[in-house]
């Protein structure tokens, strides 16, 4: 059964992302993405509740007014440090952020890496179907190539997630 802590993290993510939409043509509510990331982890057999809660909260610091301190107060240090690990520093240039994701993939904790794999899996599944609003075909192609570099540094984390990602990469002739 879902715990109250788990439901509170879903409720918090839904509130914080309530005015945000994905960049797909339908403008899917942003919260659908974080639910998909969490579902990817459950499907891969992950039962670690802090990891599942951090998956639901993985974009609240990066993309809303929430701080890591807020997450810590509400959900504790374990969840907050996982969210911190999967949060890009938005004060950096985009190219630097992209480079750091590749570098940091190799040195973050296994639990944070699970969330990173599940996040990439959802974004790539989406990119297989849609070109996000405002993206060129080239930018879409580049995302697959960059995501493969990130995922290559996350290998050995979870067989099922990596297998599903590899199916996508092989369809794109990147394997
Ligand atoms: N595929 C896809 N992505 C969308 C969509 N709407 C929003 N995004 C978000 O866009 C980000 C990927 O686009 P980028 O060009 O790398 O980043 P940007 O948003 O900062 O410009 C992802 O952020 P992220 O979750 O932080 O992931 P990542 O950048 O760490 O991979 C993804 O969640 C959509 O409809 N499809
Ligand atoms: Mn995400």
Automatic annotation (TrEMBL):
Keywords tagged on the record: Hydrolase, Manganese, Metal-binding
Recorded GO MF terms: guanosine-3',5'-bis(diphosphate) 3'-diphosphatase activity; metal ion binding
A Pfam family the protein falls into: HD_4
Tagged with keyword Hydrolase: yes
Cofactor(s) required, per the database record: Mn(2+)
Gene3D superfamilies in UniProt: Hypothetical protein af1432
Residue stretches making up the HD domain: 30-124
Domain of life assignment: Eukaryota
E.C. number: 3.1.7.2
A biological process term (GO) from this entry: guanosine tetraphosphate catabolic process
EC supergroup of this enzyme: hydrolase
Reactions that this protein is recorded to catalyse: guanosine 3',5'-bis(diphosphate) + H2O = GDP + diphosphate + H(+)
Annotated family: Belongs to the MESH1 family.
Task of the protein: ppGpp hydrolyzing enzyme involved in starvation response.
PANTHER family: GUANOSINE-3',5'-BIS(DIPHOSPHATE) 3'-PYROPHOSPHOHYDROLASE MESH1
Name of the protein: Guanosine-3',5'-bis(diphosphate) 3'-pyrophosphohydrolase MESH1
Protein source organism: Drosophila grimshawi
């Amino acid at each position: 059964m879902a715990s109250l802590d788990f439901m509170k993290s879903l409720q918090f993510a839904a509130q914080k992302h309530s005015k945000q939409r994905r960049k797909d043509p339908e403008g899917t509510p942003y919260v659908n993405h974080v639910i998909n990331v969490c579902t990817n982890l459950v499907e891969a057999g992950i039962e670690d509740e802090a990891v599942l809660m951090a998956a639901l909260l993985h974009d609240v610091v990066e993309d809303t007014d929430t701080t890591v301190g807020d997450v810590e107060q509400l959900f504790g240090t374990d969840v907050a440090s996982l969210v911190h690990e999967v949060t890009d520093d938005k004060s950096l240039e985009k190219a630097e952020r992209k480079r750091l994701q590749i570098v940091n993939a190799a040195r973050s904790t296994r639990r944070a890496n699970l969330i990173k794999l599940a996040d990439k899996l959802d974004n790539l599944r989406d990119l297989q179907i849609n070109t996000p609003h405002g993206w060129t075909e080239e930018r879409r192609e580049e995302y697959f190539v960059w995501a493969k570099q990130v995922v290559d540094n996350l290998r050995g984390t979870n067989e099922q997630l990596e297998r599903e990602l590899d199916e996508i990469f092989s369809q794109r002739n990147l394997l």
